[in-house]
Write a structure and sequence with these properties.
globular
């Protein structure tokens, strides 16, 4: 799993690549905690290159939502992630956007 961080239009974008599971979720959790501490504005998590996620990912995203509130935006989740989010109800709690651009414009 890899996270590339960049700034765009006043937002922090965390582009995540690879699977997200109990063995490698810590870097994403740490990155989200850091941006929450920094209070930098919108935080877009680009999930377009994530092909797998487990329940630990859901927990990390819920904790990030608790810390960031509406500043947290999830972008471009794959069909697999959309299904996970629907099954867990996360899609009713967190804003999901079709693309990073849509998340930035929200």
């Amino acid at each position: 799993m890899r996270i590339d961080t960049r700034q765009d239009h006043g937002a922090v974008i965390l582009a995540v690549t690879g699977p997200l599971d109990v063995d490698n979720i810590a870097p994403l959790d740490e990155a989200l905690q850091q941006v929450a501490r920094d209070g930098t504005g919108p935080v877009v998590v680009d999930l377009s290159a994530v092909e797998f996620a487990d329940s630990t990912t859901v927990n990390v995203l819920i904790q990030a939502h608790d810390a960031l509130g509406p500043a947290l935006r999830l972008a471009a989740p794959s069909a697999v992630l959309q299904r996970l989010f629907a099954l867990t109800g996360l899609d009713t709690v967190l804003p999901l956007h079709a693309s990073v651009r849509a998340a930035l414009d929200a």
